[in-house]
Design a protein that fits this description.
The chain has 507 residues and is of the alpha+beta class. It has 17 helices and 25 strands. The structure holds adenosine-5'-triphosphate (ATP). The site of adenosine-5'-triphosphate has 16 residues, from strand 10, strand 15, strand 18 and helix 13.
């Protein structure tokens, strides 16, 4: 359970300089947010950690950085121009509009995932659902395309229409041939990308959870079609446990959040169909937990048949227990060869691969597409780090050192008698490697509290003994314990604490 609501989190993020409403001085712009001095650091650390885990730490994944605007045919081939739609409920009198799925779920308490327009219209009528603002009835549910349109070049005619990308994934398929021609990748392999995506959401809400401009971190993982059940890395995750909410549990409307299972058992019982899917779901859960998120706040939920995208053979969402319920954090779809086939058809280019052993060409399958929103991940790390410490009477934001915006704060005990000079020397030494903060104002207790609230894992205090014996006090944020450390050993101490993941008690 999270300690605070989403609105309280938004207020906290604003107060501390993590996230601001975009263009606030002009009244704000719904669905757009700006990351402040601390938020931009945390977001960058989060993205770097994702890239390291998913690209640098592996030998089978490479990255690309595609552009935001692509040839409109990319989005025709992918089906976005025709089908990237949400159903909208519009008030018959006032300008209020709602994403029909969320509105119906909220009012009925039941999932509306994959529900068709007719069924929604029936529920709206039967349950007499009306506009919460003016109490008037709704118009019939309508389809609304979420793509942001723009024009490229000086003319604003039909020919110049282009779209801001609604996902990063399609660029990976459009660049597939170039990546293959310039690397020596052999199946199975993945192509990763992170960057901005834009969706003209009908009703952006819940702070960063649903915005109109956001960032994604995605991998398309390609395999030989005959190898869906042949994942050479399965051993690494077979004992991994996670709460599983299967399609069967949802269809039977079982009153449960799911069942904790080992990946190996989920595969044996046929709950998860393919080894690769189990592997990627476990790896994604593990990534969050390795950076300090609470394992028990996650589950994987299988899409029921009616909500599956037309191209997906099987889809699981990694969900997180947000204060407003279990919600999608990441989608992991098995997209088969749908996208490559579509792009082959529309571009008339051959995107198959020659397989030496088979002596024939094969169109690879995307067996799993871990697709993660950066902003939703940001929220998860903030929620799981947030602790109101009653004894200390302040918030202690227990961010993992890898993610923390500021790693070390340095203070002179008092602002006189040589202490600021010594503290500055220590600060200058440490900030060569880490983002550090120097603070002289207020009592030491107040300075510790300020750092606790923004998640700084370590503070260094220079006092009069430092001038005599060359030691300083290092204070650990999470339990407020302290150690005396020689200044010449300080750098290596932080290497152990920040880079090598050693605990404060260990060093
Ligand atoms: P939802 O059902 O919540 O609208 P989706 O199924 O449309 O999400 P995908 O298309 O699978 O989402 O996108 C992959 C990921 O991108 C999501 O799991 C989420 O983390 C992120 N994402 C999608 N839409 C938004 C948004 N409007 N704001 C913030 N993040 C988003």
């Amino acid at each position: 359970m999270t300690e605070i609501t989403i609105d309280e989190m938004a207020a906290f993020c604003k107060r501390k300089g993590f996230v601001f409403t975009n263009s606030e001085i002009y009244g704000g712009m719904a669905g757009f947010f700006d990351y402040g001095p601390l938020g931009s650091e945390l977001k960058k650390n989060l993205k770097d950690a994702w890239w390291k885990y998913h690209v640098h730490d592996r030998t089978d994944v490479v990255g690309i950085d595609g552009s935001i605007i692509a040839h409109p045919k990319v989005w025709e081939a992918s089906g976005h121009v025709a089908n990237f739609e949400d159903l909208m409920l519009e008030c018959s009198k006032c300008p209020e509009k709602f994403k029909a799925e969320s509105f119906i779920e909220e009012k009925t308490g039941k999932s509306a995932d994959g529900m068709k327009a007719e069924e929604m219209n029936r529920i709206v009528k039967e349950q007499k659902l009306a506009c919460p603002k003016c109490k008037s009835h709704f118009k019939e549910v309508e389809e609304f395309n979420l793509m942001f349109k723009t024009n490229v070049g000086p003319k604003t005619d039909k020919e110049s229409v282009a779209y801001l990308r609604p996902e990063t994934a399609q660029l990976i398929f459009a660049d597939f041939k170039n990546v293959l021609d310039t690397t020596r990748l052999k199946l199975p392999f993945g192509i990763a990308q992170m960057g901005k995506a834009f969706r003209n959401e009908i009703a952006p809400r819940n702070f960063l959870f649903r915005c109109r401009e956001f960032e994604q971190m995605e991998i398309e993982y390609f395999i030989h079609p005959k190898d869906t059940n042949n994942c050479p890395y399965l051993d690494e995750v077979k004992d991994h446990e996670i709460l599983i909410y299967s399609a069967e549990m949802q269809v039977k409307e079982e009153k449960t959040d799911g069942k904790v299972m080992k990946m190996e058992d989920a595969l044996k019982k046929g709950v998860i169909k393919t080894q690769w899917h189990a592997y990627w779901l476990a790896m994604e859960h593990r990534w969050f937990v390795s950076l300090g998120a609470k394992a028990e706040n996650f589950r994987i939920r299988q899409h029921v048949d009616k909500e599956k995208s037309h191209y997906a053979l099987e889809t699981w969402d990694l969900e997180y227990k947000f204060p407003f319920g279990w919600k999608e954090l990441q989608g992991v779809a098995n997209r088969t060869d749908y996208d490559l086939q579509q792009h082959m058809k529309h571009s008339k280019q051959d995107l198959s691969i020659f397989i030496e052993e088979d002596k024939q060409r094969v169109v690879p399958h995307v067996v799993a597409e871990p697709s993660q929103g950066v902003d939703r991940a940001f929220l998860v790390f903030m929620f799981d780090a947030y602790n109101l410490d009653k004894e200390r009477e302040n918030v202690v934001l227990k961010l993992h050192p890898t993610l923390a915006p500021i790693k070390i704060a340095v203070f002179p005990l008092v602002n006189k008698e040589g202490l600021p000079e010594k503290a500055k020397q220590v600060f200058d030494m440490l900030r060569k490697e880490w983002n550090c903060f120097y603070d002289t104002s207020g009592s030491i207790g107040r300075r510790y509290a300020r750092q606790d609230e923004i998640g700084t894992p370590f503070c260094v205090t220079v006092d009069f003994d430092s001038l005599k014996d060359g030691t300083v006090t290092v204070r650990n944020r999470d339990d407020a314990t302290q150690k005396r450390v020689k200044i010449e050993k300080l750098f290596m101490t932080f290497v152990q604490l920040i880079f090598q993941g050693k605990s404060f008690a260990e060093v």
